[in-house]
Design brief:
globular; transferase; alpha/beta; nine-stranded mixed beta sheet
Amino acid sequence: MRAYYEQGKERDRLAGSKGALEFQRTIEILQRRMPPAPAAIADIGGGPGRYAFWLAELGYAVHHRDLMQLHVEQLQALGRPTIQTAVGDARHVDLPDSSVDAVLLLGPLYHLPEREDRIEALKEAGRIVRAGGPIFIAAISRWAPRLDGVLQERLYEQNPDFLQLLPQVERTGQLPPVVPNGFVGYTHRPGDLVEEVSDADLQLDDLVGVEGLPLAATDMQSRIVDQAAWNVLLDAARAIERVPELLGLSPHLLATATPAP
């Protein structure tokens, strides 16, 4: 994981057409439950700070934590005084109990292959948020490697071994790197994410698919410069976001939860 992120690729990941869809849909979903500014928001595992910066622009006080020193430095370089950032682990957050109004957990579950570690990260989010505050939890869909990586990105053309990995990935959820210093992660079935939220003493309020069905890269690129076509894509993602049979089609899942009473 560290070898992958130390390459610095994450800073611009949400800038391309595929990342733009993920970002626009994610902020749309967050805004359904975000408390009004200037509330305090914890962005745990927030990477180089794209969401932290967006929140700061809206007037929120942001507590950003990430495992990677590089990501902390990239965010510090943006010079936003309402963002307090430091290196931190989602399983052991250095914030007091009930000290923030909402928590973003938009990356840590991607990189915790052990279930007990994922539960610990979820419990920590529940510990630091005030009663009734929303916790937003992102996960990679179990079928993202096949639908996004193979059908959309055609990763097998440069990495033929990727096709051989798919059955194991879909059985175990464990996604190994397919190239040196490549992405390594964990992928969720929707039902497994629901169970983990419950086992962390959180109450699930919503679970949606973020992007909808992955499209070919060329299609995505043509749509981002055509507002009407882009709106059709967004509307499709909204229309199917809670359809149980289609949840796993989205590359990313986003759960909203609160501490159990």
